[in-house]
Amino acid sequence: MNSAARPSSPRRVAVIGAGMVGLSTAWYLQESGVDVTVVDRDGVAAGSSWGNAGWLTPSIAVPLPEPSVLQYGLRAVLSPSSPVYVPPTANPRLLRFLAQFARNCTPARWQQAMRALIPLNNDALAAYDELERGGVEARTQAASPFTAAFRSVEDSRALLDEFEHIEACGQRVDFEVVDGDRARAEEPALAGSIATAIRIHGERFIDPAAYVHAIADSVQKRGGRLVTGTPVEEIRSSEREVVIAGEPYDAVVVATGAWIGAHGRQFGVRRIVQAGRGYSFTVKVDDVPRGPVYFPTQRLACTPVGDRLRIAGMMEFRDADAPRDPRRIDALMGAARTMLAGAHLDQREDEWVGARPCTSDGLPLIGASRDPRVFIAGGHGMWGVTLGPVTGRLLAEQIVSGVRPEQLRAVDPLR
After folding, report:
1. What angle do CA 261, 263, 265 make, to 5 degrees?
2. Could you read off the pLDDT of 287-310 as tens digits, one per residue?
3. Are the C-beta atoms of 358 and 379 separated by less than 8 Å?
4. What's the predicted TM-score (pTM) here?
5. Is there a contact between 356 and 379 (Cβ–Cβ < 8 Å)?
6. Cα separation, 3 vs 371, whole angstroms
7. I want to staple 255 with a disulfide (CB 3.0 to 4.6 A). Which of 66, 194, 306, 377 is the partner?
C-alpha cells in the first residue's frame, strides 16, 4: 500500500459502485474535467438504490442510533415481525456492531452525530438541483406535502419530540399538525383509524432507480465509461497508480454500500459497515397519495411511483447477501392493512430487499483512506438517496483539490 503523496489533481479516476453515491461522485468528478470509469459487479442501481422509498427529506435525516431504539428491548428485536429485527446470531462481527451501536444510542452521542449531519443535510437538495441543471434528465418531485400519520395523538409525540431535538442541534423542520379528518381529506389513502398527522413542508421525492439511471446516462453522455457485471476482487496501489480490474487509474473511489468493508479494511477503514436490510413492494391503490406518507410508529414508508404506491420498511441486521425473508414482506403487509385504505395488498409487485450500509455511530464514511489514492464514500444508512449527490459533490472537491471540505471532517472514514 502506498503512503506517498498522490497527484494533486487526478486525471483518471475509477468509481466502484453504480448506485446513487457512486454515480453522483462520478458526475461531480466530471464537472472538474476528470475522466471517470464506473465499475459495478451487477449493474446501475442494482443495490439499495433500487427499491427504497426515494425520500429526499434532509430536514429529518437523522442518525440511526437513537435512544428510542433501545426501548424495543431484546424480545422485540428478535421478533420477525418487528420493524427493527436482529436474527439470533453468533456472528462476532455483527455482535460487535450491535454492541457499538447500542453504546451510541444515548442523547449526547445522537446530538453529536446530528450536528455532524446538518452540514450535509443543508446542501442536499441544492446538489440535486445542480445535477438537473447540468444535464441529468430526471427530476425531483415536490412532496406536497410529506405526511406522517398516527392512530393517536400520543403516538405522534415521539416524532414531535424528535423535531425538538433536531432543532436544538441547529436544523429547522417546517411542519404543521392536522387532525385525522383533514389528513384523510387531503390523502384519502389514509385509513379511517388515523387520528392525527404531521405535514412536513419543503421536502421532495424521486423514483430512485429511474433517477440513478438518469445520472448514469448523463455520465456516459459526457464521456464516462460504465463497466457492469464486473466484480472488483482487488485494489492494488503503488506510488504511481492504483489498479482495479486490470486497469490503472490515478485514484479510486470505493462506493460499494454495505460491501465497503471488503476493500476498506485494506486501506485503514476500521469501522464496521453492517447491512441494515430494508424490504419493499408496490401495489395499486384507489387513491394515489400526492406525496410520501410515513407511519412512524410502524416504521412504514409509502411513496408514489407512477400509478402505484411503493411500501417500504424494516431494518433487518443480517448479512447483505442473505436471501429475502418472506416474513418481512408479511410484516410490512400486515402493518399496511391497518394504516392504508384502498390498497390492493394481495396484488403485490416488485418485491425487493436491499442492504442499507449502516455504521454504528450513524454517520457516513466520506473521504480519503490511509492510502492517498483510495477514497471511501458510503455508510449513509437510510439516507444514501437523500445525501448521495451532496456526498459526490464534496468528495469530488476533495479528490480534485487535495483539500478536505470542512463538511466532511466529522465523517472521516478513518475516525
Report:
1. 60
2. 999 999 999 999 999 999 999 999
3. yes
4. 0.95
5. no
6. 6
7. 377
- Place 1 in a pLDDT band, splitting at 50, 70 and 90: very low
Residues in contact with 55: Cβ distance below 8 Å, sequence separation at least 6, in sequence order: 143, 146, 203, 205, 292, 301, 303, 385, 386
Mean of pLDDT values over 255-275: 96
Whole-Å CA distances, 42 to 71, 133, 248, 367, 376: 38, 29, 21, 24, 19
Averaged pLDDT, 112-134: 98
Give the model's pLDDT for residue 16: 98
DSSP lists the bridge partners of residue 15 as 38, 253
In Å, what is the CA distance from 334 to each residue of 7, 83, 311?
55, 12, 11
CA 406 from centre of chain: 21
pLDDT of residue 303: 97
Inter-residue contact 147 to 182 (CB < 8 Å): no
Q: Is the pLDDT of residue 363 over 80?
A: yes
Which residues are CB-neighbours of 125 under 8 A, at least 6 positions away? 56, 58, 140, 204
Q: How confident is the model at residue 2 (pLDDT cuts 50, 70, 90)?
A: very low
DSSP3 helix / strand / coil % (the chain, rounded to 5):
35, 25, 40
- Checking DSSP bridges between strand 274-284 and strand 308-317, what pairing results, if any? antiparallel
Q: What is the 3-state secondary structure (H, E, C) of 329-394?
A: HHHHHHHHHHHECCECCCCCEEEEEEEEEECCCCCCEEEECCCCCEEEEECCHHHHHHHHHHHHHH
Cell readout for 33 is: 474535467
Specify whether the CB–CB gap between 51 and 329 falls below 8 A. no
Residues 6+ apart with CB under 8 A from 39: 14, 15, 16, 17, 18, 227, 228, 230, 232, 244, 245
